[in-house]
Amino acid sequence: MLRKLNLWTAAAAAGLLMLGPITNAEAAATEAVEVAFPAFPVTVNETALDGVHSLYPLLLHKGVTYFPMTWNYTSALGLSVSWNAEDGLSLTKTEGICGPVPQTLSAELKNSGRAADAVPVPFPVTVNGKAVDSPNETYPLLLYRNITYFPMTWRFTKEEFGWQAAWDPVSGYSIQSCPVEAAAGKRLQTALNLSNGGQLAADEKWIYKNPVRNSEGPHSLVRTELNGEHPLKLSDDLAMYINASGEWLYYIAYDQSGTIVKIRKDGTNRTILPATGVGELWADGEWLYYTKRTQQPESRENASSSPPGIYRMKTDGTGGVQLNPSGEVKSLYVYSDRIFYLKGEQGKEGLYSMKLDGSDDRKVQERVTDFIITEDWIYYVRDGKDIRKISLDGSIDIPLLEQEKPYMGRLSYKDGWIYFAAGATGIHGSLPLERVRLDGTGRETVFEARPTAIYWAGEAMYFAQWSLGSHVLYEHQLKEPAPKP
């Protein structure tokens, strides 16, 4: 379907490709073409894109996916870009440049169905020094919201840009311009496991877990292979917030006054570090970040002798210091060079962040009851029942999912999906595990399991389920129809 455009500007938004002015005569003579927004998920360099709220979403035209050549995208995907009024737009593949893809999102956008009009590019375009005869291409280059869009055909993705592109009906469309950084995926998996209580940790070879968490005992910290075979008991501690870092494990022994324990991954050299009454623990490089509470989670009899708040010490137990007088805090989350945490009255907590040394402490958002962070966005539960996402600085806040059920929590993330439990707690309540895409679409039930926490070890999901006062770990492969003990 073709229509005439009356007038449009051609200066890109700040920080994007500046295309220069287009005359009214050129604009009037340009025929608009109808494009649509993809309904399938899209991943670029392991970053799941939010096309619903993106200023520059991927497009569909003639059944082919079109990719926006914004400054953020081209910089992350190894393309150098130049523009001048005489020669037009030039893209050149560069070597050794690759990274995660920053996204420009807005709460005001709801991209779905048929988009507004795009137009064929009215200026010259060259790729790797070769002119593109766009008017005579089967899939011409397009201009949408003043950004040039390229068709993701074999010619451009593989031959010119050197990208790996793939499609399947479950995962959708993916583009990879460089090898996957395994370390980034491990950091995210570790953070998500700790944000759910750290009853399980995993590295490239082993799983470290507390199979049954209860206050009475017996307790055990167990190591197994990723497939669950060859279990080895490492200690008799009630271990939570298990951190696997280098050759060591760090965790809280809740049955021993909330003490921090350091132990080798084979169970040797168990060492008690000088901190008690600890509520949460994160290992990050040479530092341990932890919270102290007025009472230990598993016992009202063992109180911390230090004021509640956020502390850190080195992994050898030296250099311990309180970072700031935060008072009672929870939901510690270390991300990049900042610490995020919740503080405030139960059910009315605020989300705060500070630098790793305790400076620049500031409030990010109000009414936050649970949260996780991935790909530079904070996904959080507001008032215990709505899922939203907010930028790290708090400037952009986007609603994703609203519901009337009385509870929502246990947030986690995997491959473009936000996992959560929603429903009613209590003996007769229903609290299934559900998930929704990070753009707020595609909500579905994973299984009926009443999880109290969600963990990941490679591609396998583990969840803790409450039973007669104990939190028992179960394994679930996402491709299976039901969880298995």
From TrEMBL:
Residues in the signal sequence: 1-27
Pfam families in UniProt: DUF5050
Residue ranges of every copy of the Prolow-density lipoprotein receptor-related protein 1-like beta-propeller domain listed in the record: 190-467
Key words of the record: Signal
Keyword Iron listed: no
Protein known as: Prolow-density lipoprotein receptor-related protein 1-like beta-propeller domain-containing protein
